[in-house]
Amino acid sequence: MRHPTIMLSTLVLAAAPTVRAQEHHHELSEEEVGSVHFSTSCSGSVESGFNRAVALLHSFQYEKTREAFVEISRQDPQCAMAHWGVAMSHYHGLWENSDLAAGRAAILRAQDIAAANSRTTPREKAYIDALAEIYRQDGKSGTAHAQAFEEKMGTVQAAYPDDSEAAICHALVLDITAPKTDKTLANQRKCGEILEPILQKQPHHPGVAHYLIHCYDNPVLAEKALVAARTYAKIAPASAHANHMPSHIFTRVGSWDESISSNIRSMDLATKDEITSLNGEARDQLLHAMDYLEYAYLQSGRVKQANEVVVEMQSLKPIPGLTLTGVYALAAIPARHAIELGSWDQAAKLSVRGEGVPWAQAITWTAIGVGSARSRDLGRAAEAEKALAALRDETSKQNNTYWANQVEVQRREVAAWIAEKNGKSVDSMAIMLTAAELEESMDKHAVTPGAIAPAREMLAQLLALEHHPAESLAEYEAVLKVAPNRFNALYGAATAAETAGNPSAAARYFRKLTEIAVGDERQELVTARKKVVLTAKSERYTQP
């Protein structure tokens, strides 16, 4: 059976002229994109269109947002906030792919109109002034500009306490500026404190549910976002991103069936959006959802469907304009597939992808390195480690400490497996431990459902290979605390517990694996079911 998204893509493309005509005339309703009420001094005739444009913005439908705000500026040339909206559509702080030149031109136009039009309110000027920080040309870093934007939006929120839009925007920027090494999650918690009361008052607002998901997209707070996750797609059902975003939380809590449903729907919508898209945004959305879908399929034992995602991705016609979101997924999906399934030869033979993004290229080199080492091609593994060191240095020169450290984690993973295959088991475990500690000092980026394989999970594998089952079990359990219901961690924990002489823990993990995974495509799951049956029989026989 073909993957359902492949079938949908074929049908949609075959009907392209009809769909394009429908898209041209169809004006999305509140029921399709959510309900927003953003007060402006612009003409009353553009009020509904403005609210709809902001709703699209809150779901990161940037291309459609921009089209809507440009149309508003045509209808009301004195509407400064229409150009603010265009500038906002070019700011992609979470994804690090803003169009600074286009955004700067739009915000300067907004400032000019605001200065010349006496109807522009002080509140509107405050919004424009705050966003101008992102596009300021003063030699400072993007991080510094985002922090300045956050501070000014905090001021706007304080000055206009009844303006929920200011609060919602401020909450988003708090998440954008949150340091990925802050284990207190101060910004994320503050974001939630802002948004949770608003969600009660405005349950159909797309931005509130969306940004709660982003702010709580971490192991500590994810459970708090389940209501928002199960609501957001209903608020904005026409949005590909709104249908995908709940899977961020479903991934964090290990709810694989919910993640699969979210991403299949998102892929369907992104495929339709691509028909009329003039840049790479729709393809970015499609690939982003595919990466999360691949992850969920692998964790739930659905190998055939996971393979279909890889095949579908490889069949997509290349297009220009992809950002980090899409480029990352192109590299991650085949690497994730091979490493999760232990297909070492397949991993070793991957072709490097990344389209100029060094930390995306690093994903493939990591798979090549681990796959080569574990299939005993140590020359190729050493080549991969050398490539990762170069990519780490290249990233450091771009002053991107976060991604440089992520690449260094991957280099250490490859180095550890090389050491293990060279008979240096103590060195291999020591190196992998440093990789795990560095990886866990940072949270994952929003662009990915998770590492190709957690370094600590690899450490557990090394410990098991070196006959330290109790220590291996402890490491697997540490993985499961931050990544619940990972297939390989559950099976690894079960087998390590069994070897360590801990039958109750083994039974618990084997049983859990049978609950979260389906089918018989993975031998590990078949084994787990047999263990569960044997345990049940043993318990019956031993009962008084």
Give Rg in angstroms.
Answer: 25 Å
Let me know the number of strands: 0
Q: Can you give the mean pLDDT?
A: 93
CATH domain class name of the largest domain: Mainly Alpha
Regarding quaternary structure, what we see is single chain
The largest sheet, given as strand count, sense and whether it forms a barrel, is:
none
How many discrete domains? 3
Number of helices: 29
Structural class comes to mainly alpha
Morphology: globular
The sequence of SSEs as H and E is: HHHHHHHHHHHHHHHHHHHHHHHHHHHHH
CATH architecture grouping of the largest domain = Alpha Horseshoe
CATH homology superfamily of the largest domain: Tetratricopeptide repeat domain
Look up the CATH topology of the largest domain. Serine Threonine Protein Phosphatase 5, Tetratricopeptide repeat
Give unreliable regions as ranges.
Answer: 1-25
Estimated helix fraction: over 70%
Strand content: under 5%
Offer a concise description of the structure.
With 544 residues, the protein is an all-alpha fold. Helix content is 71%, strand content 0%. It has three domains: 4-9 and 31-322, Serine Threonine Protein Phosphatase 5, Tetratricopeptide repeat (Alpha Horseshoe), CATH 1.25.40.10; 328-453, Serine Threonine Protein Phosphatase 5, Tetratricopeptide repeat; 470-544, Serine Threonine Protein Phosphatase 5, Tetratricopeptide repeat (Alpha Horseshoe).
Keywords:
544 residues; mainly alpha; Serine Threonine Protein Phosphatase 5, Tetratricopeptide repeat; 3 domains; disordered N terminus
